[in-house]
Structures are given as structure tokens and as C-alpha cells.
Amino acid sequence: MEVIKGIPVAPGVVIGRAFVLDDVRERVPYHIVHADDVEAEVSRFDAAVAQAIKDLETARTRAKEKLGPEPAKIFEFHLGLLHDKTLIDPIRHRIVSERVTAAYAVAEAFRDLADRFRAMGSDVFRQKATDVMDLDHRLLGHLVEQARDRLAGVAEPVILFAHELTPAQAASLDPTKITGFATDAGGRTSHTSIVAAALGIPVVVGCQRVTRQVHEGDQVIVDGKSGLVIIRPDMETLAEYELSAERIAGFRADLKDLASLESTTRDGTHITLLGNIEFAHEIDALLAGGGEGVGLYRTEFLYLTSATEPTEEEHFEAYRTSIELLKGKPLTIRTLDLGADKYTQMRAEEPERNPFLGLRSIRYCLQNLPMFKTQLRAILRASAHGPLKVMFPLISTAAELRQTKMIFNDVMEECTDDGIEFDRNIELGIMIEVPSAALMASQFAREVSFFSIGTNDLIQYTLAVDRGNERVANLYTATNPAVIHLIKNVIRASRRFNIETSLCGEIAGDVTYTMLLIGLGLRTLSLVPSQIPHVKRVIRSVDIPQCERLARKVGSFDSERQVMNCLRDELDKVFPEANGGWPAG
Ligand code: PEP
Ligand code: MG
Asked: Taking the model in full, what pTM does it have?
């Protein structure tokens, strides 16, 4: 039995068989091809080379259009290699003479070439070695069964292990087949984790080397609350976890009854609980669980799950469907938040050195106006069908907000000219995710109708800790007094200027923080739908003076540990079954 400690992301216990999504290179065994199939294998190789050349030429053209001729030259080296007979012919020859698979011959030839570059010792040649391996992956990608094909082929329920998944891959998992998952990389609020948590299956990330420790078919347990992955459990551990899974099922069944009850404190204050969604189809479950609307619709997932850029019609359909499903309850659409760890294929080909500090989110939209305007137009069209608000992510300066509002006004005018109906009083808000915006909240409050505090990013930018990096995950916490101070500042500013503030970072769904957030003055939280019953359970067990006392006490601490201990002690008094908090259940 092996026990691995990772970072808990989504609660629950699952026991099952492991399915390991390994690196494509590790699935290139030495295989002899049947004599009759050699010719076909050579054709497969030629087709893979031709396809890789086509892909690279497309990438080069795109880079040239967007970045100019100089940066586009990086593709010349790759293309040069694929046209180089001294590299390609020996691979073809080896497939024929030794009857090895095309994948094997490619892997060997490219590894030799990369080794030769590395042996040359200079940085320039080391970079060339990386380029060679990149090309090797491209070719193997055409020759070996792809990760997505393997995932799509899963027939029986399994527990997925992967080094890392993209948010789009996580979004396409079928929870009836993938009953839990664990990854080597990732942090609690990386976007992959957020999407995974919405699937309602136990998830543990940041397990460092779990994909090397587990073998396909192993019996495994994923404990999403304590962040443990247990490989080949002994009988005693297995029995313990079977009991625990039963207990959790009972606990969840009890919580279901809360859906129809008011989200009100013991002294009668209503706390609005909205849902964070990535797709319209999550709305039914959100409402069934007691959600009162959508506080954050992460619309960039329309891009991430589609190979081509969505059209205005596709945007519009997604928003109109959401409005219909919400039956009069409010919808808050966040405009595209692409970049950082959410890449389209095209962006993946233009890597940035510091993507979280780079061209992401509203900055990306402001540099890609046709794309941004397409979305805004669709939003405006949808606004004629039901209550809808718009919020802009990652605003960090007043100029950025003003430019964004100007573009919004332009699109409004265009819609008017085109005779399109829309809500002329549509409310515009911003996410507060950057310390500059939190510090200047009073200024921003004069120019928008509402704030939504995005603590997932606010924490990372305040503490300079990458939210998706498991190596610094211990430093990433909302219990840091500086983070709490900024949240307080935003709430104070919004009260002074009488605008609404909600909080939609992952801590809104973490019962450890519920009393503190109410005590700081928040009356609206937007959270992962599955956590609504848990948070409501806390709300119904507390009163406002009790929460305010807690907030004052927390405000006097100067260390994360003090804050966390205090929050856990208080939670234990009102919700002992949460057993220390996140993720409850
Ligand atoms: C946040 O940053 O807190 C947030 C809600 O946005 P996202 O997690 O999509 O970056
Ligand atoms: Mg964010």
C-alpha cells in the first residue's frame, strides 16, 4: 500500500481501478511490425510528417500575421528538420529494414538528435534540443493514440490519474465514467481544479509523482477531503474507507433537504447564494441545489471546448439558453477570461514568459477587439430575454475600465443602429482580482454598478504565489491578513458608494470562511453549486453579531495560522460534521 498526500480540491471518497493517462512518449514500446504491414507503417510515417509540416506552416502564417516576420522564424528550424533528408530518410529506412513501428523509429531518431545538441554544451544548442523534442512530440502525436482518444474510449468507471489536465479536458470528463481523479501538478484554485470540482467527483491535485507510482488497473482510493491517494490499499484501510464512503453518502442525502430552505441567518438576514458555472447545462443542478441565480458565468469555456472561435450566434444561444433555464433568476456573465492557464490552440502556439502577468483576460480582449465585440453583441442581444448583468475580469487600472466601457458603448450604439433590442439599463460591474483594484476600490465604485471579489486571483497577485503551482501551494491562502485587509477595503468602498459587492472566488464555497465573509459584511456569495447546501447549513446556524465578532477577532491576528485555527474552531462549534472545513463532506 502507498499513501500519497496531495492538495484536496473536491470532497468525497471513491474506491476503484486506476486509469493512467501517461505521457505520449512512454507509450512507444519496441514493437516489430508484421512483414505485410511494413509498407502501411511507412505510409503512416509519411502522413505524420506531412501533417506536422502542414500544422507548422499554419502556425508560422498565424505568427507572421500577428507578430511579424521575425518571431515567425522560430518555425523555420522545425520545418527545416522535417524537410531534412538526412534525418527523415534513415527513419523510413529503419522501419523497412528493422520492421520497427514508425513511432519507435521516430522516438529513437529524435532522442539521438536531441542528445547530440545537448552534448554541444551551449545554451543555443540546448534550446535546439528542446525544439527537437517538441517536434518529436508533434510527430508522435500523429502516430500514437492520443490522450483524448484514450479518455473517450473509457467504458467502465475508473479513477483517472494524469500528470496535468487542461481546463478543457477536465470540462469534457464524463463523471459516470471518471469517478474521481488525481494529478501530479496543479493547485486548489487552478482552473482545471475549479472545473473538476464542478463535476461533483472527488479530486486531489498536486500529488507530485503519483502517475509514476500508480499502475493502470491498480486498486486505488481517492479521498478528496484529506487530499490522500491510496494505492493498493490493505484490507483494513479498504474497510475503513468503505465505511467512510457510506457515511458521506448519508451526510449528503441529509444536506439535500436544505435546498428548499431559506438561506437566512438565525437572526433573519438573507445571504444570497449564487452559482459559479462554466456551462449553461449546470443551471438545472444549481437551481435544484438551492442556488438563486448565476453570479459568475465563466464564458471563456465556450472557446476552450471548441476547435474554432465561437460565432456571435453560438455565444447568443449559450446566453439565451442560460436565461431560459434560470426562469427569471439573475445571470451574471463574465466576459472572456482567456490566457494564463486558459489557452486556445492559437494562444498555445505563442507562449508567454509570465502568462499570469501577461496578456490575459480583459487585456487580451482589449487587444482582440473583433473577438471581444462579438461577445458583447451577443450579450446585449441576450439581455432582451431576461435579467442579465455583465462583469469584466482582471481590471487593474481606471483607464482599462474606461476603455472597456467605451467599447461596450460602441457595441450598444451598433446594436441600436441595427435595430437590435437590448436592455439599455444593463448593469456593468468589475471583478476585483488585482491588488491595485482592491486598493483603489473607492475610485472604481464611482464608475460601476457592482463588484465581485475574485479571491482566486486576488490571493495569487497579493502574495505573489502562482495559484496553480503545487510547489508553493502552502503559501497560497486567503487566511493571509493582507488578503483579508483587501477584501475589507473593497466591502467598505462598495458600502460608501452604495454599490453591490459579492465574492466569487473558491473561498465562497469553503465553509471555513462563511462566517468570516458574513462578518466582513458580504451578503452575496457565488460558489461552486455542489457546495451551496454546506454553506447554507453554516448560514442557518449563525447570527450576524457572532460573525462580526469573529471578523473583528480575525482582524487582530497577524499570521495565517492564527486565522485558520480561529476559523476552524468557530466552524467546529456550528458545523462539527464539516470536520475542519474545506472541502466539506
Ligand atoms: C477569481 O479569480 O477568484 C475568479 C473567480 O475567477 P477565475 O477563478 O475564473 O480566475
Ligand atoms: Mg480570476
From this structure: 0.79
